Amino acid sequence: MTLTALTRRSEAAAATGTAEPAGPDGPGATPPASPRRSTRDADGLAVASFVLGLVGLLVMNILLGPAAIVMALVALARSTARRGRALLGLALGIADLVILAFLVTGNGVVAWNFGG
Q: Could you tell me which residues are beta bridge partners of residue 22?
C-alpha cells in the first residue's frame, strides 16, 4: 500500500469516526512484504540453472541448455545471493548449446553418437 493510499484511508477513518484495526506496528499498519522469500526463490533458480547446465553437458542439451540460461538470467534479475552459481549456470547453458552446435555440424543430426 502506498503512502498516499494509507493517508487517504486514515483521513477517511478519521472523518467517519471509525477506528482502524491495530497492526503489530500500530494502527493501520500492514505487515511488510517478505524480501527473504524472493531471495530464496532466486537462490533456488541459481542452483537449478547450475545443475541443469551441468547435466546438459551429458544428455538432452537441446532442452537443458536453454532452460539453464533462462533460469540463470531470472536468478540474476532477482538479485540472487548465489551470483557465482547463477553465472556458472549461464556459462554451462551456453556451453550446452555450443556442444550441440558442434554435434549437429559433425554428425548432421541432433543426436549423441559415442560410437564410430
A: 27
Alpha-carbon distance 46 to 6, whole Å? 37
Q: What is the pTM of this model?
A: 0.63
Q: Looking at this protein, which amino acid is placed at residue 76?
A: L
Cα torsion angle, 26, 27, 33, 37, sign: positive
In 54-88, which positions are buried (b, 16+ CB within 10 angstroms) versus exposed (e)? bebeeeebeebbbbbbbbbbbbbeeebebeebbbb
pLDDT digits (tens, 9 = 90+) for 30-87: 555 555 666 788 899 999 999 999 999 988 889 999 999 999 999 999 988 989 999 9
Nearest to 79 by CA among 35, 114, 27, 16: 35
